[in-house]
Amino acid sequence: MSQIPTQHASPPRLAYECAVGELFGRAPIYDAIFSCVSPRTLVRTGHSCRAAYAASKDFSYRAYNIHRHLSRFLSEPLDFRSLQARTGTLIAGSNALQFLDRTFYPESDMDLYVHPGHVREVLDYLVEKEGYKFKPDSTQPEDYREIVSDEWDGTKFRDESLDLDELLLYYQIKGVESVLSIEKDGPDGLLKIQLIACGNSPFDAIINFHSTCVMNFIAFDAAYSLYPMGTFEKRETLSVWRARPLHDLTVEIKYGERGFAWLSTLSVGTSPQKPPFYAFTDRTVGDRYTWKLPLDTRGVTLRSQMNPSSSVFQCDPVIYNGWALERVQHGVGTVYKTIKSSVFRYNYSTTNYKLNFKLWLFAIEQGFLSRTLLENNLLEKENWPWFDAELAGFWETFKHDFLSFIRRDSA
């Protein structure tokens, strides 16, 4: 008797496979789960299986939608991001914290940190294109154009003076030259943007914020958190700023209400490279301790060549900055040396002695040549050569040839 042919059935799936498919195959379910976990847990869950990876990617794409985030303050987010790419402007403060933390503070404003020479351009854009109006404080004129010039001479020698006490007392943040406020009516109330004109660079101001939980920023191509473990995992913030009087607890209270435990100093016995603050460690933006969240840059117009004498430089200058968290006289502070020369369009910082020394020699030699050509009418100011692209090359070279200028107790 011939046998009746039979079709071999697939073996039954294991129970956990069915459960995973149900869990990570439906957006309403995994949205509810992922919305309650930290960024680190979200990433780790995505590495557990293919279904979880696809679900976490889908959730992140929607949760970290930069255009939706910016649309509260800006009608044309893409145009603003092109302005960021052109000027190196960073979004920082509580706005960047909200974006990375996937939360919302109803009464918060947006803080923009702007490089020297770009303040007028950014202000003009926000006033003319976005409809904001300048709101001067008691010391400022009604027209911002009276205090913010559209002419900036980057060929001048840059002052290396560290005498910032007067500015610290007034603006209460190191590295800030002035604060300009603009406002407009939005669908849900008044919208306020504070434009911070930085003396050296946006990074220089951000790294001197009151504490670590606000050391986050959004560039045109990525969002960064310098202390993600402390901020998003432990919900702690370490004080690194002593300019505000000790009896003024405004900041501590505000961030305490937002769920952060305030630490006045490092615990006894803190060792180098130890989370969550990685003290006594030479850091750079984008290092393994940084959380970098790449953003979709489709449609963003990158910085054009600054002039025919300069190499094309289209990345955000913030990635070429370094610092360290060290014990200082009054507690804990950020330490670094500023790279500040007229041969570079932007100012930078580092803790790498070899890099700093090499760039110092380069700046002296190249600066002397450029200034000689300028003084003999062989070079026009508009064609003054900037060497930021070349600095990027130095940075990569000395990344692997590192000697910190910070003296630390080996014990």
Short note summarizing the structure:
The protein has 411 residues and is of the alpha+beta class. It has 14 helices and 15 strands.
Describe this entry's structure for a reader.
It contains 14 helices and 15 strands. It has an 8-stranded mixed beta sheet, sandwiched between helices. The protein is α+β, with helices and mostly antiparallel strands and about 400 residues long. Mean pLDDT is about 90; it is low at about 1-15 and about 160-170. Helix 2 (about 25-35) crosses helix 4 (about 50-65). About 35% of the residues lie in helices and about 15% in strands. The chain has helices spanning about 15-25, 25-35, 40-45, 50-65, 65-70, 75-85, 95-100, 120-130, 165-170, 200-205, 230-235, 250-255, 355-375, 390-400; strands at about 90, 110-115, 135, 175-185, 190-200, 215-220, 220-225, 235-240, 260-265, 285, 290-295, 320-330, 330-335, 335-340, 350.
